[in-house]
Amino acid sequence: MSPKFLWYIPNTVEPGHRGDDTTTGWGSIEYSTDLARTAEAHGWSGALLGTGWGRPDTFTVATALAARTTTFEPLIAVRPGYWQPAHLASAAATLDQLSRGRVLFNIVSGLDNLDAYGDTNVDPAQRYARTQEFLHLLRRLWTEEDVTFSGEYFQVTGSTVAPRPYATEGRAHPTLYFGGASPAAERVAAAEADVQLFWGEPLDGVAERIDRLKTLSEEVGRRHKPLEFGLRITTLVRDTTEEAWQAAEEKVAAMATADGATWAANRRTAVGQQRLFALAARGEVLDTCLYTTPGTLGAGGAATTWLVGSPGDVATALENYRKLGITHFVLSDTPYKQEIGRVGDQLLPLLREPSA
Predict the structure, then answer these.
(1) Number of Cβ within a 10 Å radius of residue 146
(2) Enclosing H/E stretch for 59
(3) Longest C-alpha distance within the chain, in Å?
(4) CA-CA distance, 196 to 194, in Å (whole number)?
C-alpha cells in the first residue's frame, strides 16, 4: 500500500500556535487557502484540520478549502456530541461528492468545552461507547438504505442518505481515522475505525500497540477490511543533523520560558499524554532521533514528540515506522507555511523513493 502523507493546519483565530510567528491572517479564508494550496504544491496529499470550541468550525473550513483546491484532502476532525451521526453522514456525503472523494475524517473522543455546545457526557467509558455507536452508524448510513438503529446514544428510523459518498474502487466512503491509547479506545478502533492514529512513540511501543490492535480486531469480530495505522508527529528537518538539533534545542528553550503555557482539556490525565511523560523519563532521545522533551512542555498532546535531524535522518526514522505497518503519516512543524515547503521538498521525495 502506498503511504499517505498529510500536513497539519491548526485552524485557529489566535496567532502563536506552537510557536508559529505568523501574526496575521489566522482564521481567514485567504490564509487557510494559502496553506492548503502550498501543501498541494509541495507534495502533500492534504492536511489534518484542528478542531475545538472557540476555533473556526472545522467542517465549514474544510468545505471552503475543498472548493479552492484540486487535490487537497481535508482530514476533518469532528466530535460525537457536537455532531449527530445522521447529520454528519449527510453533510459528509455531500462534500465528498462535491470534492470527488477527497474527504477524510478524524473522530475525536477527547473532552472539549462541552458546556458551550451542550454535551453532557464526560465519563470516558461512556464517551468511547458513544464513539463506537457513532462510527458504526456512520458506516451504515453511508452504505445502506432505510437504516433503523436504536442504540444507547443514537437512534434513527428509516434513514437514507442522499447523495451517497463518492465511491471509487476500494473506497465506499470517507476514511475514518481515530486516536486513543486507553483499552476502551483501542477496542473502538479495532471494531470500527479505518485508521488508528498513534502519537510519536518509540518503535517498540508502536509495534506493541499494532500487535495488540490486530489481536483485538479478531476478539471484537471486526467486520471491515483490516485496520490500518498512522502516525501523528512533528518532523524538525534541517540541512544537517547539527543544524536540526540546534534548532530543536532553541525551540525547547523558548517553550520552557514562554508565559501562559496551558494544558488543554484532560491532557494531563489522558492515557496518551501519560505515555508521553513516561517516554521522557526513559531519555531525551529515543530510537535514532525521537526527541521526547517537547512532550513535557506547552499544551501537550499530539505531535509533541519530535523527529529531529537531516532529511536523511528523519526519512530513515519514518521508514522504520513504515516497516512496522504505518501507512498514514500526519507531519508538521512551525512556522507552518515555511515548513510545508521545507519538509515537503526535502523529506517527502526520500519517503516516496527510499532508494533516493
Answers:
(1) 9
(2) helix 58-67
(3) 62
(4) 7
